[in-house]
């Protein structure tokens, strides 16, 4: 399989009251094209720090991150910003839609950072909103006028507007109830089935079941990996395999 991301001896440290705190420790990792990779671990294990380091949102203290063969750890702040616009999509627990813009304009604004063809972007934005099950009568609404689940699905559409090589999702269902969370997971699963590569941080086993590969982070290191294969709804063996893996990791 082709890898999109490769890390070598990835380390991240913070200074806390003069004491050095090592959050990531010598991580060697590959993220593969077409995978739905899940990152799990206890609170404070380094899950989100790893996600941000992989995506160029945060710079590691030591080591390297290569993205499609380009070492992004050598880029400066401006170069990283340009790189992320064209290569990465982001979905967060806090959705960060611009409240003064309509849903449709939120997608256009993100797309115009990369593509200045407004007509083509408008057509693409409409297709994406349909793909995430946002009806056309909501497109001119503002983020505060739609539900949390609808807003998160709009956030996914926005993350996909620039055809990213990889979508990074940090607890995308963390603020949603089980019903709306399932709808968001269904959208992510659907796009992964179409070939979209995804890396998602979650603490939730129901969300983690959607991945085909689960990485467990413990004390800043990759402590274990569970290969589940493509998601199939109602697969009890999948749930049992993941549960046994997480118990073995001390989850």
Describe the model:
By secondary structure, the chain is α/β, with parallel strands linked by helices. It has a single domain (33-51, 88-248), classed as 3-Layer(aba) Sandwich (Rossmann fold). Helix content is 36%, strand content 28%. It contains eight helices and ten strands. The chain has a six-stranded mixed beta sheet, sandwiched between helices. Strands 2-1-4-5 form a four-stranded antiparallel beta sheet. Helix 4 packs across helix 5 (148-160) and helix 5 packs parallel to helix 6. The protein is globular and about 50 Å long.
Question: What is the general shape?
Answer: globular
In percent terms, what proportion of residues is strand? 25-35%
Mean pLDDT: 94
CATH architecture: 3-Layer(aba) Sandwich
Helix content: 25-40%
Q: What would you report as the Rg, rounded to the nearest angstrom?
A: 18 Å
Could you give the count of β-strands?
10
Q: Major sheet: order of its strands?
A: 6-7-8-3-9-10
Alpha plus pi helix count: 8
- Summed up, the domain count is 1
**H/E series, N to C?**
EEEHEEHEHHHEHEHEEH
The CATH H-level homologous superfamily: P-loop containing nucleotide triphosphate hydrolases
Distance between the termini: 29 Å
* CATH fold-type name: Rossmann fold
Largest sheet: 6 strands, mixed
Low-pLDDT stretches are none
CATH class category label? Alpha Beta
Classify the secondary structure makeup into a structural class.
alpha/beta
């Amino acid at each position: 399989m082709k890898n999109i991301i490769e890390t070598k001896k990835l380390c991240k440290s913070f200074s806390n009251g003069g004491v050095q705190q090592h959050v990531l420790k010598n991580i060697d990792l590959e993220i593969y094209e077409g995978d739905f990779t899940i990152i799990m671990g206890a609170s404070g294990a380094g899950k989100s720090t790893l996600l941000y380091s992989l995506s160029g949102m945060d710079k590691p203290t030591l080591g390297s991150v290569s993205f499609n063969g380009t070492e992004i750890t050598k880029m400066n702040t401006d170069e990283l910003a340009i790189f992320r616009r064209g290569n990465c999509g982001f979905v967060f627990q806090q959705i960060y839609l611009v409240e003064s813009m309509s849903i449709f304009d939120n997608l256009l604004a993100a797309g115009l950072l990369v593509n200045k063809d407004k007509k083509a972007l408008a057509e693409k934005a409409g297709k994406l909103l349909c793909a995430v099950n946002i009806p056309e009568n909501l497109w001119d609404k503002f983020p505060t006028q739609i539900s949390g689940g609808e807003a998160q699905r709009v956030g996914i559409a926005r993350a996909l507007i620039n055809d990213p090589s990889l979508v990074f999702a940090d607890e995308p269902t963390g603020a949603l109830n089980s019903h709306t969370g399932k709808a968001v997971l269904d959208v992510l699963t659907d796009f992964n089935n179409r070939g979209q590569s995804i890396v998602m941080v979650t603490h939730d086993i129901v969300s983690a079941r959607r991945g085909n590969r689960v990485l467990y982070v413990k004390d800043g290191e990759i402590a274990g990996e569970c290969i589940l294969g493509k998601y199939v709804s109602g697969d009890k063996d999948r749930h049992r395999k993941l549960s046994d893996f997480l118990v073995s990791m001390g989850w």
